[in-house]
Design goal:
The complex is a heterotrimer of chains A (287), B (370) and C (297). Chain A is mainly α and 287 residues long. Helices cover 75% and strands 0% of the residues of chain A. Chain B folds into 2 domains: 239 residues, 3-Layer(aba) Sandwich (Rossmann fold); 121 residues, no CATH class. The longest helix of chain B has 18 residues. Chain B starts with a strand and ends with a helix. A two-stranded antiparallel sheet of chain C has the order 1-2. Helix content of chain C is 72%, strand content 1%. Chain C contains 13 helices and 2 strands; from the N terminus they run H-E-E-H-H-H-H-H-H-H-H-H-H-H-H. Classes of the chains: A mainly alpha (287), B alpha+beta (370), C mainly alpha (297). Chains A and C meet through helix 1, helix 4, helix 5, helix 6 and helix 11 of A and helix 1, helix 3, helix 4, helix 5 and helix 7 of C.
């Protein structure tokens, strides 16, 4: 056997494979990052220079921030952002309270009908949002809650999946801890607050971040339930801007708006990317 | 196939930039005669698995060379090396049946070596029969016991008739009874096939019982190579002496004055040729003979009866461990109620070491067998 | 054991209220809506009970167009995105340098607003009187003529929609597959290498079977997700999807409910149920197929 030839061939194959692999990874990274680059780039091109480029240029030498000014002045972008922050915070906070209490009941307490109730909960996970949105729309309309925060928030609160995720985590805490606390005369609620929540903090943080992302990007429900621009969230705001905001042609201003609404989540992601990715890998789905 | 390692060295770069590089294997040179079973022995982390992985081609050596026969295979990738490797956790493919697992290496062959279906089936059956699992061919690994999985792993390594068979702690996941049985099985299979075999273990008893030769390693450095009995009787240093033998060797602080060895105040043995000074004294448990006027005085702690043998547990102020242990035959006369016991020492079971370096200090060869 | 008491229900109460009001009740209600014929949302009256709503929806050309669009989208994007994700994850798993950086970059689209980035895609693909757009510039390099991907021919619009959909779903798939690949023990690969297994055979005979549960999970969720496509289309083509001829089933449901042609909750319900039945059927088929090809260890 010619060992040297074998060794040479193996080395060559290894190098070729590595090159191809990195080429593929770089290609995909470019594909992912390019839209972000393009929106940043376009947002700092002036209206005049953007429209005079028949062949779009990949860079600009005269960046300007005027588009951001017009984005916040010509349309109520600030209002959209504030609305979204209020909506996101309120929904997430409510969701946390409801989810933690329910997960605690399922994981720790014993009550008649618990198994049946949990099975029923699990089966609710399979219901697609598209089926229930119709009646919810009618309900909220009938309650005269259109164009209110209540109407936006209430139907968005519950997530069966998060209850399930948290319950699984709660259930991993050894029973002995609970009995020890009981012997010391700790109430259930205090035990939940002082022991379970601190122990399961990573999961709670994950659930919170996922819900924040979901809220920040929600589009369908807000679109159904608001037609007053005072209550628009960023997604609807973007759609509004696109359809009759700056006039169809002011692309740089549109891009400035897009950058403005994307930044909060991208910053959140850059800070928490490990937690977010671990959380999603554990079974999160989009929306 | 004869296997030769020359100055084999493996250095792992440290994980973080500040830390030091880890030398897993350092300047390792030895040769394995064709058809022998070699036990690579040492505490965990001593580099024995790394050595095995370098033999298989899964790890690239930092320096040195590996020869199979006359061929330099140092840079040959694992795929082309033609070794059989049995992993510590067996690494059986969980989604394949026993038969598919054993067949897997044969199906990799291309070109000239390619086998027909009938040839493959025949070889699989042959290998399965060799390790006596031919009745389990259609089960999945998860449906087998640990010992059966072990046999499948060996069959998979043997089916391609490897030039060298490598076993990485193959018995560590088995219970005690099965371990005994399987190690004899491995010995039988190795004898029958005559394949040069390297066996990694941290269990000295295991290595001693089945190896033609053992290689003792410590912290990446080769300590001693030899037939099991030779290494046990004549260790080159303190580490080897301490590592081999159950119960372990008893260690004492001793002193040599005028070719006389003292333990505590007792002059226990004449040691011709050793210079005056402090020494570490190792005495094998079987090196004690209880005698009423023996030179070494110990406080008797208790006596454990183990059937064929009796184990005397005693205390001595000069001993490094709180208790020392001597093994004698059960028909030896012994006063068990006494507070003390006196021993005469068998000279060839007494080993002297340099206290700082642990190097062996030899004394009067002619007297050792007297 | 703990003392059994009804106190547990007290903790469940908030969740029960929300779920009951916004999930269970609407679920039952949607079936009632779907069989109420001639429902008038203003007076909340209807003529009778029957399957007319389904018949209307199934004969509505807009619905048929939406159905066709959705099916094309599903058939193209699910295999394509899963395949590419597998390729990229395998590439990621085989490198060590810069791996975490690549992983983070690849996940970025997951946290971005579908509508916002969709707008960027629209700009990139759109042809306006002022400019042909960047995509057409690229096409021009290959000698292909400018195409308006946003307001132009059907296949061009479908291409952009598929492209954007794949771009949007990829982070999730890459993440799931990368963690599945990481969970395959290195010893299996070592064992295979020692036995002289080639790269390709290693991938098909060891890697694929061992991560098959994750692939299967992605295929199922991919089908479900793609059937519910809507926001991506809105982002690219605007809210009036019927006019663009790019509506999806979910888009049809919302349009029936609200919007330019809205005010028909009965039709919307019927369409939603049709969608639900399709998704359920496809999922059942998936489950049946998977029995043969998925290895649970």
């Amino acid at each position: 056997m010619d060992y040297e030839k074998l060794e040479r061939r193996a080395r060559l194959r290894d190098r070729t494979r590595k090159t191809l692999v990195y080429a593929l990874l770089v290609f995909w990274a470019v594909l992912v990052l390019f839209p972000f680059y393009w929106m940043l780039l376009t947002s700092v091109k002036s209206y005049g220079s953007y429209n005079s480029e028949f062949i779009p240029r990949l860079y600009t030498l005269t960046p300007t921030l005027e588009n951001y000014l017009s984005a916040f002045q010509a349309v109520p972008l600030g209002r959209y952002l504030v609305n979204t922050v209020v909506f996101t915070l309120a929904t997430t906070a409510l969701m946390l309270v409801v989810t933690v209490l329910a997960a605690f009941a399922f994981a720790r307490l014993n009550f008649p009908g618990k198994d049946l109730a949990f099975t029923a909960f699990l089966s609710l996970m399979m219901i697609p949002a598209e089926l229930v949105v119709i009646t919810n729309f009618v309900t909220i309309t009938d309650l005269n809650l259109r164009n209110t925060f209540a109407g936006l928030i209430l139907p968005s609160v519950t997530s069966v999946f998060y209850i399930y995720l948290l319950k699984e985590n709660f259930a991993q805490i050894p029973d002995e801890l609970y009995y020890a606390a009981k012997v010391d005369g700790t109430s259930d609620l205090k035990y939940l607050w002082k022991v379970m929540i601190p122990i399961c903090q990573p999961t709670i943080v994950t659930v919170t971040i996922l819900k924040v992302i979901e809220c920040w990007n929600s589009f369908v429900w807000p679109r159904l339930i608001t037609d007053d621009a005072n209550y628009f969230l960023v997604s609807n705001g973007i759609q509004e801007i696109r359809e009759n905001g700056f006039g169809r042609e002011n692309v740089p201003a549109m891009m400035a708006a897009v950058v403005a609404i994307s930044i909060p989540l991208v910053v959140l992601f850059l800070i928490f990317h490990k937690k977010i990715m671990a959380g999603v890998a554990r079974g999160g789905t989009k929306g | 196939m004869k296997v030769e390692l020359q100055h084999l060295t493996k250095i792992f770069p440290s994980r973080d930039k500040k830390g030091k590089d880890v030398v897993a294997v350092s300047d390792f040179t030895f040769s394995i005669p064709d058809g022998e079973l070699i036990g690579l022995l040492g505490p965990s982390g001593c580099g024995k698995s790394t050595t095995l992985y370098m033999l298989s081609g899964l790890e690239k050596p930092t320096g040195g060379k590996i020869f199979f026969g006359d061929d330099d295979v140092t840079d040959l990738p694992a795929e082309n090396r033609g070794v059989g490797l049995v992993f510590q956790n067996y690494a059986l493919y969980p989604h394949l049946t026993v038969e598919q697992n054993i067949r897997f290496p044969l199906e990799n062959r291309k070109g000239v070596g390619k086998l027909t279906k009938a040839q493959i089936a025949e070889k699989v059956l042959e290998a399965a029969k060799l390790v006596q699992i031919d009745g389990l061919l259609h089960r999945k690994p998860s449906e087998l016991s640990g010992g059966q999985q072990q046999r499948v792993a060996i069959a998979r390594a043997l089916v391609k008739m490897p030039k060298v068979l490598l076993l990485d702690e193959p018995l560590s996941n088995l219970d005690a009874r099965l371990r005994l049985q399987t190690r004899e099985e491995i010995r039988r299979i190795q004898k029958k096939t005559g394949i040069t075999t390297v066996f990694v273990t941290h269990d000295q008893e295991e290595a001693m019982s089945i190896s033609d030769r053992i290689v003792v390693m410590c912290a990446g450095v080769l300590q001693q190579i030899g037939k099991p009995q030779e290494v046990y009787d004549d260790p080159v240093n303190l580490f080897v002496a301490k590592f081999l033998g159950t119960p372990p060797i008893n260690m004492f602080r001793g002193r040599v004055e005028g070719e006389q060895l003292f333990i505590g105040g007792d002059a226990v043995l004449r040691v011709p040729g050793v210079r005056d000074g402090v020494v570490s004294v190792g005495i094998r448990p079987e090196g004690f003979i209880p005698e009423e006027d023996g030179p070494l005085l110990c406080k008797l702690h208790n006596v454990e009866v183990m059937g064929r043998d009796v184990s005397i547990v005693a205390e001595n102020d000069a001993a490094e461990a709180p208790l020392i242990r001597a093994i004698i035959q059960s028909d030896t006369r012994l006063n068990r109620q006494a507070d003390t016991v006196r021993f005469r020492l068998k000279p060839h079971k007494v080993l002297l070491f340099e206290p700082e370096t642990g190097a062996r200090l030899r004394f009067g060869e002619e007297e050792r067998h007297g | 054991m703990d003392n059994r008491s009804w106190k547990g229900w007290l903790y469940l109460l908030p969740a029960l209220c929300f779920l009951g009001a916004f999930l269970v009740y609407p679920l039952m209600d949607v079936f009632i809506y779907s069989v109420e014929e001639g429902y008038n949302s203003a007076s909340q009256t209807y003529f009778g009970v029957g399957l007319y709503n389904f018949s209307y929806v199934l004969h509505d050309t807009y619905f048929l167009q939406a159905l066709k669009n959705t099916f094309i989208l599903v058939i193209i994007t699910v295999p394509l995105s899963t395949g590419i994700a597998l390729l990229i994850s395998a590439a990621l798993a085989s490198v060590r340098k810069l791996r975490e950086l690549f992983q983070t970059v690849f996940f970025l689209p997951y946290v971005t607003n579908t509508l916002a980035v969709g707008l960027v895609f629209m700009i990139l693909f759109k042809k306006t009187p002022y400019s042909d757009g960047l995509m057409n510039l690229l096409l021009g390099l290959f000698g292909a003529g400018p195409v308006d991907f946003i307001d132009g021919p059907y296949w061009a619009k479908m291409f952009v929609l598929c492209f954007y959909t794949v771009w949007v779903v990829m982070p999730f798939k890459i993440l799931i597959l990368t963690s599945a690949l990481a969970s395959v023990s290195q010893t299996y690969y070592n064992a295979a290498r020692v036995d002289g297994t080639g790269r390709l055979r290693m991938f098909t005979k060891i890697t694929l079977p061992m991560i098959s549960p994750s692939i299967f999970y992605l295929v199922i969720t991919g089908f479900i997700g793609a059937f519910k496509a809507y926001s991506d289309a809105v982002a690219l083509f605007g809210t009036d999807l019927n006019a663009a001829g790019m509506n999806t089933i979910v888009g049809y449901v919302y349009d029936m409910l609200y919007g330019n042609s809205g005010g028909y909750p009965s039709y919307a319900s019927a369409a939603a149920i049709v969608l639900f039945v399709i998704v359920l059927t496809i999922t059942c088929i998936n489950l049946l197929v998977s029995r043969k090809h998925v290895h649970y260890v």
